[in-house]
Amino acid sequence: MLKDSEKYMYGVFELDTEHSELIARAEKVMASYQKGEAESEILRLFEYLSAYVLVHFRNEEKLLSEYAYPYLEAHKALHREFKQDVITLQDDIDAHGLTLNSRLKLMHLTSEWIDHHIGVEDNKIATFILNTRKGGN
């Protein structure tokens, strides 16, 4: 599904390395769902992805702080929103199991986050970092 993952690589090693790992984990979640694997396997992979997302957010926020990214607080707010979406989905799954609705939310949340957050928001921060490294900011 994310076969064009190179479009999410921006030339900032710290970000690209983590984005590559996030995409690989997301692809495992999506493949598990598409193959109709057991609920326990899909949830295990979702937890595996979610855990790495938290590591990535922490590292990304630290990097942005080091570069004095002017929109750091807005970017942190996006991270908080995504974490809350994951918590809400997890609560729904805990209460009702992995229903068709929660499976669709899981797939949407995973693909939307990669497409929008990495594809748009992280592209902005990569551009900022690259310009700063070149002495442009």
Helix content estimate: over 70%
Q: Describe the biggest sheet?
A: none
Total count of helical runs of at least 4 residues: 4
Tell me the β content.
under 5%
User: What gross morphology would you assign?
Assistant: elongated
- Described by its quaternary structure, the protein is single chain
Contiguous low-pLDDT stretches (5 residues minimum) are: none
Q: Tell me, rounded to a whole number, the average pLDDT.
A: 89
Care to count the β-strands? 0
Rg, rounded, reads 16 Å
Give, in order, the helices and strands: HHHH
Distance between the termini: 36 Å
Supply the helix-strand structural class: mainly alpha
How would you sum up this structure, described in words?
There is one protein chain. The chain is mainly α. Helices cover 80% and strands 0% of the residues. The protein has helices at residues 13-34, 39-66, 72-96, 100-133. Helix 1 (13-34) runs antiparallel to helix 2 and helix 3 (72-96) packs antiparallel against helix 4. The longest helix has 34 residues, at 100-133. It is elongated. The model has no long low-confidence stretch (mean pLDDT 89).
Feature tags:
about 0% strand; about 140 residues; single chain; mainly alpha; 4 helices; elongated
Task: Briefly say what this structure is.
By secondary structure, the protein is an all-alpha fold.
Secondary-structure map:
Layout: H1 13-34, H2 39-66, H3 72-96, H4 100-133
Helix pairs in contact: 1-2, 1-4, 2-3, 3-4
